[in-house]
Amino acid sequence: MTIPDYQTCMLPLLKYIEDGKEYLMRKAIDSLANHFQLTPAERIKLLPSGQQAIFHNRVGWTKSYLNVSST
Questions:
Q1: In degrees rounded to 5, what are phi and psi of residue 46?
Q2: Is the pTM of this model over 0.85?
Q3: Calpha distance 15→44 (Å, rounded)
């Protein structure tokens, strides 16, 4: 599977946090990576800048667009 875009991550993220509890961002990222069945290589593939994993970046944008707070 290819790394999903931030729009594709929206519904799974909302379902992950639907109980209203606080979640660590890294746990949400792991849960979504499992949901999308990302390979280890896809999970660690970096942006062209080499500073951040693409999937982590996409979930971050998802969080931003949904205005979801996390710890």
A1: -95, 155
A2: yes
A3: 24
User: Packing angle between helix 25-35 and helix 6-16, nearest 10 degrees?
Assistant: 110
Q: Within 13 Å of residue 8, how many CA atoms lie on the same side as its CB?
A: 11
Q: What is the pLDDT of residues 20-30, one digit of tens each?
A: 999 999 999 99
Total Cβ atoms within 10 A of residue 47: 12
Residue labelled with tokens 């710890």: 71
DSSP 8-state secondary structure symbol assigned to residue 3 = P
CA distance 10 to 32: 10
